[in-house]
Amino acid sequence: MPVQTPVKRRTHPSSDHQMHTYRTLLVVILCVFGFFFTTKLWMPDTSNITSTDFGTSIHTSDSVSLVLEDWRYNPDSNYMEAAFQIVQSGYLYSSSLQFRTELYSDNSQTTPLPCAVVYSDDDTLIVQMHDLPKGWKILSLRIGDNVSSLKSAETGDLTSSTGNVLDTSQDDTPAHFNADARTVQMDTTLAPKTEIEYAVESISRNIASQNEQIETYQKQISQNTQTIEGLQKDIASIQKEQAYQTSSELQGSNASIQNKQTQIQSLEDKNESFEEDIEACQGKIDKLKLKLHDLQTGTTRTYEEENAAVEESSSRPSVPVSSSMPAVSSSPSASSETPVSSTPASQAPTSSATAASSAPQSGITYTPIS
Fold first, then answer.
1. What is the pLDDT of residues 222-280, one digit of tens each?
2. Given phi > 0 = left and psi -120 to 50 = alpha, else beta, which region is 353?
3. Within 298-315, where are the H helices?
4. 252 vs 270: CA distance, rounded Å
5. Which ranges of the chain have pLDDT less than 50?
């Protein structure tokens, strides 16, 4: 019986080459998809930054605007805080001015995030934002006021049993402030504070602002003074040459001297105005320091008491002040002076909690949006 030899199958080189090509093509396609679908993870975000710059002023109504002063974020606790300066065209609504807030992220423009006004006075507004979503990119904070309702109430269109809670459905369009995750200031120590702590920060911020304004005025005065000295040298030089000028040349040089003298007078007037502004800023600083001292010590004070103490002190400058009747001088910034208080020294609060409860309450109220 013959032995059958197995037949070997021949493989085609072209088939192996096609499989290798398919595998290579599949790998390339997967790499391309992986490249495009992961660019957001490893490539920098080149979209336009939409953060609201510090110092930006936006109207919440026709007579009230907010200036963004600070915006910080604690990524560890997903907590954020924004501080604004309140600028009013008048104090007609200070006693019943209210603010409402809403916060939205770029992930959801319809579902508001938790936020609320936690502190406000005549100058400062503080907004807290809690439980921010992970991976947020843009936050939009909307703040409105109730000025329109207050105006309507003045004309009798609206009434309120409490005098403060008014319908705000017809108020003006809220101001929009944006925070960009790429530029927001990170602060891992940021945490909610007490009302008295916010008040101290507000006063300290106002004092720093007044000092910066004084520095600006002083720099302007210095520049004007240098310009005046240069003009005076020019006048002296022209006057020396006038001894050798003809009648027609004298007319031109006299006109030049007159022009420079007019410039000097204008600059001197500006310097005088700046000096008055500096004096006003310093007076404001003194009052702020007095307010800060009273807040930290729990002292209560009325306008009549303060002015009576100042008038008594100024009317008897040569008589020493009795230790049993402390007086406040016209410069309340001095730390050694004891302010007049309607609260006896024996009853002065000794703890921050007691000081907070006895500190003067702000006239401005607020209504958080839930």
1. 999 999 999 999 999 999 999 999 999 999 999 999 999 999 999 999 999 999 999 99
2. alpha
3. 303-315
4. 27
5. 42-46, 157-171, 310, 313-314, 316-370
Tokens for 230? 């240069």
Kindly give the pairing relationship between strand 64-74 and strand 124-129. unpaired
pTM: 0.60
Query: Which pair of structure tokens corresponds to residue 259?
Result: 């022009």
Candidates 100, 92, 97, 89; CA nearest to 65 is 89
| Parallel/antiparallel/unpaired status of strands 175-180 and 138-145 | antiparallel
Q: Report the distance separating Cα 45 and Cα 49, nearest Å.
A: 9
Cα–Cα distance, 83 to 71 (Å, whole number): 6
The total number of residues shown for the chain amounts to: 370
Helix (H, G, I), strand (E, B) or coil at 215: helix
Q: Who contacts 307 (Cβ-Cβ below 8 Å, separation ≥6)?
A: none
> What counts of helices (H) and strands (E) characterise the chain?
7, 9
Which of 74, 27, 33 has its CA nearest to residue 186? 74
Round to whole Å and give the CA distance between 216 and 210: 10
Which amino acid, one-letter code, is at 151? Answer: K
Determine the Cα–Cα distance for residues 295 and 124; give it in Å rounded to an integer. 16
Annotate 244-266 with DSSP letters as a single string.
Answer: G--HHHHHHHHHHHHHHHHHHHH
Phi, psi of 184 (to 5 degrees): -65, 145
